[in-house]
Design a protein that fits this description.
globular, alpha+beta, OB fold (Dihydrolipoamide Acetyltransferase, E2P), single chain, 5-stranded antiparallel β-sheet, 5 domains, 30% strand
Length: 647
């Protein structure tokens, strides 16, 4: 009897065991085929493979084997050079890459031990074992610059720009002023209107500015002005091709890998203070209650009067800092609060999670880790960006005919679908064990139900834990040409318009908006092209997010290396059969206490109550419990922290 075969993506763990999901939409993996290392057949994580189900079972899991690899998911890997006698090989940073990669050229073999490199696997030569060629020598393993660049390269991004891209950017800088007066004449001139930027203290590129004019009779003109990147980066140019490929800027703990060369991102496009700048704007006539009476979209020229940090703007609003623009900022804040109130009243989910920030020394070593403070000025800017994004999305959508909408509207939308029913049911079980209830009907849940839960857990010991679990149960927001609305924000229309310096979809939206304003023609071949770019942009976003998390985890482990043996207060964030995970309260550095190191009893996992329970003492360690611990060890290479309990 011939066994069934399937084709799809394989997942590989660090032990070389493969997993193949027959139905990738099945969240609990109940139909997953397990593939033992000896039957993986040189398949690696993410490869597209043909798998045969053998009919055997191991530990109640269906077994299979890889018949052949159809498509490799990637060929470039980052790793550390190791010498062993005559052999020179690279140990990959990605632990799911379960074999080493040998270097065979004379030049590559001379690279010193401990050097971190980017290599390209030569699949044609890799019959007996994997063979790779060094594409780039990154630096000495363990050095800050080496490790941060390694994270970026491992995720498939590049630091340097191709020479042709840099040359094109420099040419634009030298020539654009030759046409400046003629260009300004075609734009709405808003240089006489009070305009400010509000950004983080360490920001170097300013995407957005806000203008303010009191029209009298409780009416205001508020402009959301966005860097007009589309003026400088034109379709089919070298810059356009590179920015499409990159998709976005990547933000690590200590650096930014920009989507555009710095001559554009930090200079020509950036809305720096006291300079005339080209912008694409959404200008609203709005009352104090946040009700929009009129809106206008188009290209403008602005002149930012002042660059505020979030902290500076907050101090001006609070009266702690003297200076101009106090009344303007206060009025902007009052209107923003009304916009926020309406947003939540319409069902937007109130997710506010804590993030950490690092203070580094001159060598990049973390000397302090702390939680970011979310100020009212953060919310102020956020509300006006949301207003502009929503208004632009609706304008473009309503401007297009029904036939275009059915094919896939000729714009890019930021969509967020309803949560998966099974995930919501699992979340409800998890919450019940912690003493909370999520109202749902067979996994159907409304944003109001989620908000009610978040309000209930506010101020409790499990607040952060439940927020994180709830976010993970949500669908992922993605880019698409097909508008289905945004569940989390409760918006019928939503897009990304406000950050074209650092996100390619925003640049696309600027082009779509210009076309709608000018009555441009839609080409038949555009539908598939733009949907492809949406899929690629969503994937790039995920990889960039992974890179950011990896850099944060690296710095958290590096910080704790300086605190071995010290005691801290933490909260239990995970309970497994092999131990408990604990997160330090202030730095959010997470580590594990192995079950064998608890020592005073034999502990077993109580899955139903998310607890470890001692057989003799009855002592329990439960999800959400506060606990005192000490740092036992820190492994930077594996980015792992080992903790011990303080009795």
């Amino acid at each position: 009897m011939k066994e069934k075969t399937y084709t799809g993506s394989i997942s590989i763990n660090s032990k070389g065991v493969g997993f193949f999901d027959i139905d990738p939409t099945n969240k609990d993996r109940s139909d997953s085929i397990e593939i033992q290392p000896e039957f993986v057949n040189k398949a690696f994580h993410g490869d597209i493979v043909e798998v045969e189900q053998t009919g055997e079972k191991v530990r109640n899991r269906e077994q299979g084997k890889v018949l052949k690899v159809i498509t490799r998911s990637k060929s470039e890997y980052v790793g550390t050079v190791t010498h062993e006698g005559e052999k020179v090989y690279v140990v990959p940073d990605d632990k799911r890459m379960y074999v080493d990669i040998f270097l065979t050229t004379k030049e590559d073999a001379k690279i010193p031990q401990g050097t971190k490199v980017l290599i390209d696997i030569n699949w044609e030569k890799s019959e007996m074992g994997l063979i790779g060629d060094v594409l780039k020598i990154i630096g000495q393993s363990g050095e800050n610059n080496t490790e941060m660049e390694a994270i970026v390269l491992e995720k498939g991004f590049r630091v340097e720009f191709p020479l042709a891209v840099e040359a094109e950017a420099e040419h634009i800088k030298k020539s654009y002023k030759d046409h400046m007066q003629a260009e300004i004449a075609t734009r709405r001139d808003m240089r006489g209107t009070i305009t400010v930027t509000i950004d983080p203290a360490d920001a170097k590129d300013f995407d957005d500015a806000i203008s303010f004019k009191d029209l009298g009779n409780n009416m205001y003109e508020i402009g959301v002005h966005i860097a007009d990147v589309s003026y400088f980066v034109t379709p089919s140019s070298e810059l356009d091709g590179e920015s499409e490929k990159r998709g976005l800027s990547v933000y690590l703990v200590d650096r930014t890998i920009p989507m555009l060369p710095e001559v554009l991102s930090n200079d020509l496009c950036s809305l720096n203070p006291h300079e005339d700048k080209y912008t694409f704007s959404a200008v609203f006539t709005i009352n104090a209650q946040g009700e929009v009476h009129d809106e206008w979209f188009g290209r403008t020229v602005i002149h930012s009067d002042r660059r505020f940090t979030y902290e500076d703007a907050q101090e001006v609003i609070d009266g702690k800092q003297d200076g101009p623009y106090q009344e303007e900022l206060r009025t902007l804040q009052r209107i923003a609060k009304n916009l926020e109130k309406k947003k939540f009243g319409n069902g937007a989910i109130n997710f506010e999670t804590e993030e950490v920030k690092f203070i580094l020394d001159e060598k990049g070593k973390p000397i302090r880790v702390y939680k970011k403070q979310r100020l009212e000025t953060h919310k102020l800017v956020e509300e006006y960006m949301l207003l502009a994004n929503r208004a632009v999305a609706k304008f473009i959508f309503m401007s297009q005919n029904e036939d275009v909408r059915k094919k896939g509207s000729q714009s890019v939308y930021r969509i967020h679908g309803k949560p998966d029913k099974e995930r919501i049911q699992n979340l409800a079980v998890f919450l019940k064990a912690l003493g909370f209830e999520l109202k749902n009907k067979d996994g159907e849940v409304t944003s109001q139900d989620i908000n009610a839960l978040l309000k209930e857990v506010e101020g409790t010991k499990n607040e952060d834990l439940i927020k994180t679990a709830t976010i993970r149960s949500m669908a992922k927001a993605v880019y698409s040409t097909k508008n289905i609305g945004h569940f989390g924000l409760a918006f019928t229309y939503y897009t990304h318009f406000t950050s074209p310096i650092r996100r390619y979809p925003d640049l696309m939206v600027h082009r779509f908006l210009e076309r709608e304003l000018n009555g441009g023609k839609i080409e038949q071949n555009e539908f598939e092209k733009y949907e492809r770019i949406c899929l690629e942009s969503s994937e790039n976003e995920k990889r960039a997010s992974d890179a950011e998390r990896m850099s944060i985890k690296y710095k958290q482990v590096e910080y704790m290396m300086g605190h071995i043996g010290e005691g801290f207060d933490g909260v239990i964030t995970g309970v497994t059969e092999w131990g408990i995970y604990i997160e330090e309260k202030e730095t959010k550095c997470e580590g594990m206490v192995k079950i064998r190191d608890i020592g005073d009893d034999f502990y077993s996992l109580d899955e139903k109550n998310y607890s470890l329970k001692g057989q003799n003492t009855g002592k329990t360690f439960t999800l959400g419990d506060t606990i005192k611990f000490k740092v036992v060890s820190a492994d930077l290479e594996r980015r792992v922290l080992d903790y011990g309990l303080i009795v």
